[in-house]
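ok so i was messing around last nite and threw this chain in just to see what happens. nothing serious, just curious
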Amino acid sequence: GLYIDGDWVDDLDSDGGNLYQYNWKTPYQMADHQLKVVVEDGSDQQSEAEIQVTVDHPVEVDLLLCSVESCEPLVDDAEVSGVLNFEADATDDGSEIVGVEFHVNGNLAQVDDTEPFEFEWDSSQVTDGTATIKAVAVNELAETGEDLVDIIVNNCDIDGDGYLDQGCEGTDC
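result:
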């Protein structure tokens, strides 16, 4: 059987061979844990092994697209236009997040070292089409995590009616 921190968690049934496994969903909290495995053969002879592990989840970051009212997760292929307000929701179980880098199309656009980690971007400064937004969160140990989203910039048909804006040499007034 498998024991975590002295508590029995599973009998570790075999897949028919010599492989025994257990999928451990750890809590999002940095901590040391004691793992012990006790095996028994058909003659009731037992053997055990014990190790200590440190669970330390990576830095996690999620890009959000914000309006005056609320923030929503930024998803691939979101169609956007105009001035956009992004926020990075960054967490780490082992140390404090000290800053977030915001990148547009592979270029560093801004660094914010104060929560909430925010970035304002005028999408009219790029050609309509796909743009890549990336947030890289950095903790005090210089460990990083990132979220990367490909969005669709469409400043020429802002109202989505199929006609281009006058600024894009169309007739959408």
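not much to say yet. DSSP finds no helices and 13 strands in the chain.
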